[in-house]
Write a structure and sequence with these properties.
Length: about 250
């Protein structure tokens, strides 16, 4: 469940609200209040519970969602954000339980947009999916289904807290010059492209903003980038991200 696209728009993220705009590299803490439900079935690898939030989409052709969701048991070797209380291994059919997300740190692998919203058999139809990796997991480009995808604007009352956004003072597509006069384009947290074509690398701080959204910058935007990079360097951004994620950055494959 992972079609890759570029990141979301330029709005500054906040904490706790559903108006957060995401982009690859964001480090988030997720939590969803545990809500009462019942166990619909148990198999060798999964526990099926009646989903207490989303509704069946009556106009979704070729979809037969039955209002249930299967959550993996440890034997399934699958990662799932949503968990049950009591634990899945303690449940049997017709038991009552609660389902939710305990506080969980993830990092955003990709932000996927759908226009029109995607038909899944459930309501609301998602216009966006976040694809995330759990803390301690590094993206493997050879593993297509490694990420966990979900609708951040769905009916599940998920709370989002932005712990860290590397290069938060830049927007994808920004063009800058560095301390050595080299010109660069910023595409994502770990994706820098030097205009001189002199191989891989990263810009040396401080940075001077040259353009944003393909046009001229305002004095305020230029001053913000200069101030944010007056001290520190790329290595510090990377170190903070790595400490929070327990992972190594892997630039996307183009």
């Amino acid at each position: 469940m992972s079609s890759r696209t570029d990141g979301a728009g330029p709005d500054e993220p906040g904490t706790g609200g559903r108006d957060v705009r995401f982009r690859p590299g964001d480090v988030l803490r997720l939590e969803c209040p545990f809500t009462g439900t019942t166990v619909a079935g148990v198999s060798r690898f999964h526990v099926s519970v009646r989903w207490p939030w989303s509704e069946v989409d009556p106009q979704a052709e070729n979809f037969g969602w039955n209002g249930r969701r299967a959550l993996p048991l440890p034997e399934a070797h699958e990662w799932e954000l949503f968990r049950t209380r009591p634990a899945e291994t303690e449940l049997k059919p017709d038991d009552t339980c609660r389902v939710g997300i305990p506080p969980t740190v993830v990092h955003v692998l990709s932000v996927c947009h759908f226009d029109p919203p995607r038909v899944t058999g459930m309501l609301p139809r998602p216009a966006t999916y976040l694809e995330v990796l759990r803390q301690g997991e590094t993206h493997d480009p050879e593993f297509e289904d490694q990420g966990y995808a979900f609708d951040p604007a769905g009916d599940e009352p998920i709370r989002f807290e932005l712990l860290f956004r590397p290069y938060a003072f830049l927007e994808p597509g920004d063009e800058v010059t560095d301390r050595n006069g080299r010109a660069w384009r910023f595409d994502a947290a770990w994706e820098w492209h030097a205009f001189d074509g002199a191989g891989q690398g990263v810009p040396a701080w401080p940075l001077t903003l040259l353009s944003r959204a393909g046009g001229p910058t305002t004095p305020e935007e230029t001053a913000a980038v200069a101030g944010a990079t007056a001290a520190g360097d790329h290595a510090e951004e990377l170190e903070r991200w790595t400490e929070l994620t327990g992972a190594s950055p892997v630039p996307r494959q183009w």
